[in-house]
Specification:
With 470 residues, the protein is α+β, with helices and mostly antiparallel strands. The chain folds into 4 domains: 17-66, no CATH class; 82-210, no CATH class; 262-386, Nucleotidyltransferase, domain 5 (2-Layer Sandwich); 394-466, Nucleotidyltransferase, domain 5 (2-Layer Sandwich), CATH 3.30.420.340. Helices cover 38% and strands 17% of the residues. The strands form 3 sheets. The protein has a 5-stranded mixed β-sheet with strand order 6-5-4-7-8, covered by helices on one side. The longest helix has 23 residues, at 233-255. The protein is elongated and about 105 Å long.
Length: 470
């Protein structure tokens, strides 16, 4: 759907276009979001696909690209980081990116933990001598190092006078980067390494970044022993530190080899028209990361959950298992959709007991804490007890009173996050009820309260409680 300025404001899929469009007629009852969408929409376009899975993929792609106003809006929907290897360059670079622009570059990921990805890239660059300059420099680069370190002497002890080369020796057509003297670069800019050997280093770096660290550790240990035998203790110390760094980086891969699959655990809380979602990323039994999302939506929970899943996993890493608090709408179609975009079978499950159920409950506690509601745990219990679709963050209570059948008056108090919000207390004079009639009086004040909120386009409470009398 597009508005008067031809901007896409909503993307959806339907098995029957005619019925779907007819459902948006103004004469039918709609929630506030749909009513606003009907008023704003000026034109409708549609694309025919071969099956429902293709429709889901196209829908997710269009929502991701255009971020329509009336689709769910994930506040944490920036692209997940990838590691890019610029294979299109003569001497490739390795760095973190959130965009996949090049069709020639190799991309690893996506990664849920950007800090771990950055540490891995930093180690790969230092161990395998990958260049860090955006373009091969013709002049000395001061970007990364401004003084020589102990690594200089260790890895460049073969140079009788390194400063002579830095100052413009005829041994190079180009002035050298300071980073070469700290061992961080293999110096392709001064032809200190052939293109073939540099590419081999890049291949080793890629293998390392894919988790194959055993060969790297063996190689570093061999170099450390060689340096120690040659009494080059500075170099031996550097290799020892690099071995420790690699082992720390890979320790999570070694902790739990029994569980070879990856899984995500997802839970949410709906409060005040906003869905607060958290995702635990569990890899081989180890919690590696967590992502948080907020989305404004008036959709019922199962539909929202389906929309969230297809949009989230359009860009996020796809695990083998997804643990959910309840079945999303069209769960079988979703499973086929995940299989199509990831190329592997994805299991969606709703645990009733056991460890997974406890993790879901732990997620719920985390979300509750983040929402900041002081008594949110009790509110969640109230939601479950009353069978509500969302947590009653805003509750309004009504009562009427009189003195000897005269002086009828109504009152309303409001609680927000389980605390009294006295700025929203209201008192009503009963105007249209003759005599003593508590039910008619209650009808009047409730009508006056909410007809005014609707008229002024103000948010309604999540729960209304009225005193029904004896």
């Amino acid at each position: 759907m597009r508005n008067s300025e031809a901007v896409i404001i909503y993307v959806g899929k339907a098995k029957n276009i005619r019925k779907r469009v007819a459902s948006y007629t103004p004469s039918r009852p709609h929630d506030m979001k749909t009513s606003q969408l009907i008023q704003e929409a000026e034109s409708i376009e549609y694309i025919i696909t071969d099956n429902e899975v293709e429709a889901l993929i196209l829908e997710a792609k269009l929502i991701w690209e255009h971020k329509p106003k009336y689709n769910i809006d994930l506040k944490d929907s920036s692209g997940y980081p990838h590691i890019r290897i610029t294979l299109e360059e003569e001497f490739p670079r390795i760095f973190i990116t959130r965009e996949k622009k090049s069709k020639v570059s190799l991309y690893l990921g996506p990664y849920t933990d950007v800090k771990s990805a950055r540490r891995a890239v930093k180690l790969a660059i230092e161990i395998f001598g990958i260049r860090i300059c955006r373009a091969l420099p013709k002049y000395r680069c001061l970007k990364h190092d401004t003084k020589l370190s102990s690594r200089s002497a260790a890895l460049h002890s073969k140079l009788s006078n390194p400063m002579q080369i830095m100052n413009g020796s005829k041994s190079s057509r180009f002035a050298r980067s300071f980073s070469c003297f700290t061992g961080k670069c293999s110096e392709p800019c001064i032809e200190n390494i052939t293109k073939e050997d540099y590419r081999k280093n890049v291949e080793k770096a890629v293998s390392f970044l894919r988790g194959n660290v055993d060969d790297v550790i063996l190689d570093l240990r061999e170099k450390m022993r060689g340096a120690s035998s040659a009494q080059n203790y500075e170099a031996a110390k550097i290799y020892r530190d690099e071995i420790a760094s690699v082992e720390i980086l890979s320790v999570r891969q070694k902790i739990d080899r029994e569980r070879e699959y990856n899984e995500d655990v997802i839970n949410y809380v709906r409060a005040d028209g906003i869905y607060f979602v958290q995702v635990f990323n569990i890899r081989r039994g180890i919690l590696l990361g967590r992502t948080k999302h907020e989305a404004k939506s008036q959709d019922e929970p199962r539909k929202f959950l389906a929309d969230f899943l297809k949009l989230h996993y359009y860009s996020a890493p796809m695990p083998e298992k997804i643990i959910l608090p309840e079945e999303p709408k069209d769960i079988r179609v979703l499973a086929d959709y995940f299989g199509t975009i990831s190329g592997k079978m994805v299991e969606l499950s709703v645990p009733k007991a056991g460890t997974k159920k406890k993790i879901l409950e732990m997620l719920l506690k985390n979300i509750t804490h983040d929402i900041g509601a002081k008594c949110a745990a009790e509110l969640i219990e109230l939601k479950d007890a009353l069978g509500l679709s969302s947590v009653p963050i805003v509750i309004e209570f009504f009562d009427v009173s009189n003195i000897s059948g005269k002086w009828l008056v109504g009152a309303m108090v409001q609680f927000r996050n389980a605390e009294p919000d006295k700025s929203n207390y209201r008192r009503f004079r009963i105007l249209g009820v003759p005599g003593q009639d508590d039910f008619a009086s209650m009808q009047e004040i409730v009508w006056r309260r909410y007809s005014r909120l609707v008229r002024e386009n103000k948010p309604l409470p999540n729960l209304v409680v009225v005193d029904g009398g004896a």
